[in-house]
Amino acid sequence: MCKYMNSKILKIAGVIVVGLGILTLFCGNCCATKKSENFNVTDSKAITSFTHHPASDCIDVTFTTGRVYRYLDVEPTICNKFKDAESKGSFFHKNILNKYSFEEIQ
User: Fold this and answer.
1) How many structural domains compose the chain?
2) What does the pLDDT read at residue 27?
3) Do 89 and 39 belong together in one domain?
């Protein structure tokens, strides 16, 4: 269920999305309408870019090796701090790596 949806609402007014084997219900007023944000990283030896998916609280991180990993259920505050971090690699290693579930997607 959408984390922003009021659990007392019985009528589902949104969209049903099936992804990663999990059925997710969106209320239609919030996260289903949030767009992904892409960020290029030019000053990192480890990370070339990342994409924040606010609708699912995921971050896709592209490494200089070309591998792409999706980190799941990353809190919005961590995503915002990652965007603003002076050193993306250091922030990633201290705050995301080994703290969130992940999957290799490319």
Assistant:
1) 2
2) 43
3) yes
pLDDT averages per 10-residue partition of the chain, 106 residues? 39 39 41 76 93 94 96 94 94 96 94
The DSSP result for 28-83, as a single string, is SSSGGGPPPEEEE-SS-SSEEEEEEETTTTEEEEEETTS-EEEE-S--HHHHHHHH
Q: How far apart are CA 93 and CA 91, in angstroms?
A: 6
Q: Give the number of C-alpha atoms closer than 13 A to the C-alpha of residue 62, restricted to the C-beta side.
A: 12
Rounded Cα–Cα distance for residues 82 and 15 (Å) = 29
- Regarding whether 39 and 24 lie in a shared domain, the answer is no
Q: How far apart are CA 68 and CA 104, in angstroms?
A: 6
Burial pattern 56-77, b for ≥16 Cβ within 10 A else e, equals: bbbbbbbbeeeebbbbeebeee
